[in-house]
Fold type I protein arginine methyltransferase.
Amino acid sequence: MDQYFKSYEELDVHRLMLNDTSRTLAYKNAILNYTDKFKDKIVIDVGAGTGILSIFCAQAGAKTVYAIEASELAKMCEEVIIENNLGNVIKVIHSKIEDLDSNVIQKADIIVSEWMGFYLVHEGMLESLLFARDNFLLEGGILFPSVAKLYASPCQLSSMFQFWDNICGVSMK
């Protein structure tokens, strides 16, 4: 398993993401406010992690949710699903989405993924998401989320650069 997926085996990483209440609630509200889109649908959660998005999809009425998780965290994800009595709706699959074929999972009406991570560029899940879209999303299906915006503003942090001017009498410009 490559280093990227291995880095998500540690719960500390997931604690940071889940502790970002604004983000977690934004996903929850976005999914639960559109139960009409999720009701009786097949959903794939790419990079399911702890299973939180899969659970929200099940709560929104999804018929089946495939929680795809490449890291060893898939075992814990399955425990969380069982603990929340959703094992009849959510199927955890320990695999990279790129390693699956249509014999393992059905094509989906909706693909959810928290692919963008911190600052919209931190995680490297975009390629996996696009693979899932191209191979497992039904015609007319929905990517959730499907749009992202990154805003930037110029700033000046001269103190960051001046630090290198004199390190104990040594210039490191």
